[in-house]
Structure formats: structure tokens, C-alpha cells
Amino acid sequence: MNTLLDEDEVMLKESAATLLGAESPASLVRSAEASDLKYSPELWRRVADLGWCGLCLPEEYDGQGAPLAWLGLLLEEVGRHIAPIPLATSSAVALTIARFGIGSQREILRSVASGESILSWAVQESGGAWNIDAVSMPGRVDGDDVVLDGTKLFVDGADAATHFLVAIRRQPDDAIGIALVDARAAGIASKRLVNMAKGDQATVSFRNVRIPRSQVIGGWSRGRDALTFLMQLAAVFSASLMAGAARRVTEMSAEYSNIRFAFGQPIGSFQSLQHMVADMLITVDAVELLSREALWRIDSGLPAEIEVAQAKSFGSQHCITVCRSAQQLHGGMGFMIEFDLNLWYRRVVSWSLCAGTAYEHRRIIASHLLDRPGHMRLDDCHPEAGDEQGRLEGHNETELEVVK
User: Fold this and answer.
1) Residue 401: its pLDDT value, please?
2) Separation between Cα atoms, residue 276 and residue 229, nearest integer Å
3) Domains contained in the chain, CATH given
4) What is the rounded distance in angstroms from the CA atom of residue 193 to the CA atom of residue 196?
5) In 3D, which of 191, 194, 195 has the Cα closest to residue 203?
6) For position 385, what pLDDT does the model report?
7) Regions in the chain scoring below 70 on pLDDT
8) Cα–Cα distance, 309 to 250 (Å, whole number)
């Protein structure tokens, strides 16, 4: 992976920064918080017209077929300007359908690319665990239909979504599947949750919701792989959003430390505060690089579970630390809800809990390092790492002997 952005990537990131800098001020974010929709339809239409909604979708479905890393760059800017648009959730679901959908299942991608359809995932259930084994909502096969009964928690963008991608277990054999469900279908009800970001997150219940079997994306045989892909995208997209938000918080802190005087000099001249801001920048760069590497591996068809977990766990913990450091640097006003910094802090906290907590993703990392017998290479923590054919060119050969 080349960690340096090429000319096209720099242009994409700069154009996104210019657009969102002009059209997503803090006043728009506050307005979206107070609205029923919880997002800005005007800004959504604007980015859809620019092709953001279909950036990485196949060209035959009106997308642009761009690399997944490009979407990560856009999401960094969305996070940096905390733009009130459901780009991350809708894109994660659309890309899952693009990869695993068959036949007519992909037709919805055209309306996603145009911004007409907004998609969201419905994965978590009672207990809130972010893992496939926790999915228990039954999908009972009844002739040519599948009947859904159950409740999903923490569904992002529930009120804005036109469709949900619902994780289910086929009855009676417990096969995992993901079903595309019209959000307006009979038997669906939602109850809004008030999260830290005051966003559109809800508990969604499904009562005898009947859908055609053709709406199970990719069929039942690929359901577990499809859900794994969706959950990985959701986690790394959250990390990209956090990286962008934490970068803006760091910039705000650096700017403030140069204009706030104490003892006759800018507070940025004090070594302890210099170290604080330096640590903030190091953290932001680390989360950014981890999330970009994870997206590159996913796009390259390489195992990415460990990289996704690294990006999300590190970002979830340390981007919050960046925001808290910024609050301390700003003094008392940094903790006031009326101060704009609070908008970034609340969103980073909310994103840190979305798509798996730091603890859940650390558990994934630990299982790769400690729960498997034999030799484990630290630079490529995957089952095939011990196989010479699985070694990537240029990797170090440092190994860890895991004794069981």
C-alpha cells in the first residue's frame, strides 16, 4: 500500500473540503440536530449530484467504479466538517449489495447513486453485541416468502432510510442471511433513540414482515460472508469519520492556543500544551493510516479483519482522547454545549460506539494473536500467514511463537 495520496486523491480530498467547508457550517449541523429528519436533504442532494453516493458503485448501475480508498477520503472530510448526511451508512449497505447481490437485487443501486434511496443496516439486537454470532432474529421461510419477526437496536438513519439491510437467521437451520427490506413495509415500527450526537438512531421492530425470498442478498449460501463484509465496512467507515473529526478538533486547538494569552504569552508557547497538541496530531495520523490500510485491503480482496479491528479500536479510544484534550485546552468553554467544539466531541463519542466498541474489536485482535496455535507473524495476523504462499512481498519476517 502506498501511504501517500496521488494527484487524483489530493484533488478529490481538497474539493470535498472546499464544498463542505462552505456548505456544512456548525449552524447547519445544529439545524439538522433540531429537525425531524436529523440530516440535511439539501446537502444530501448536493453531494448526490456530485456523484458521491455512487462513487464506488459499479458503472453499469450509474456509479463511478472508483477505488474504495476514495470513499474513505470523502468520509474523512465528512467527519472533519461533521456534515449531516447519511453517506457512511448508505454506502456500506450499497457496496455490500454491489458485491454480493445477484440479478435484480442490484437494481436498487441506481437509485442509491442518484441519492433517491437511502440505505441503512439493522444488525444489533438485545445486548447490543456487534458480532455475527449474536444475530438471532428469525427469518422463517414460508413458500416463496421470508417472514421476519424481531427487534433491531441502534439502527442508524432509521427515519431517513428508505430500505434496511437486516441480518437474520433462517429457520429452522440457523443459516445467516441479509435481507433488503422496504422501510415502509407493513409491520415495521421504529422508536427513536437519543444518542450523544442527537442523531437519527432508532430501535426498529419487525412484526410478521413478509418479503420475497429474492430479497435475501446473495442467497443464504453467502449470507455470512456478506454480513461480515458489511460489518467490516461499517466499522472502518466509522473510523474514517472519527479521523476526520479528530483532525478538525486538533486544528481548532492549535488555532486557539495561538490566540489565547496567559502570563503575557500565547498558551501554545507552554511546553506541556505543545506536547498535548503534538500527541493529538500523532493520534489523528495513526487512525487515518489504519483506516486507509483497512480499506485498501478490503478493496484488494485481502483478509482485512485484523486491520479493520485495529482502525476501529484505536480510533474509538484515542479520538475521544483527542476531543477531551481539546476541551481541556479550551478551558471551561470547551465543555459548554453552546460551544462548537461540543458538536465534534459528541459525534466522535457516538461514532466510537457505532459498529462495535473498542473492546469488541480488541477481542478480535486478541483472538488472532493468542487463540491460535503455532507461529503468528505480527505484520500479517491472518490464518494463512504461516503459509509461504500467503506472505506478501516486502513484509518483515518477525514471528511470534504462540504456545498453547
Assistant:
1) 38
2) 37
3) 7-117 (1.10.540.10), 120-223 (2.40.110.10), 224-402 (1.20.140.10)
4) 10
5) 191
6) 43
7) 373-404
8) 24
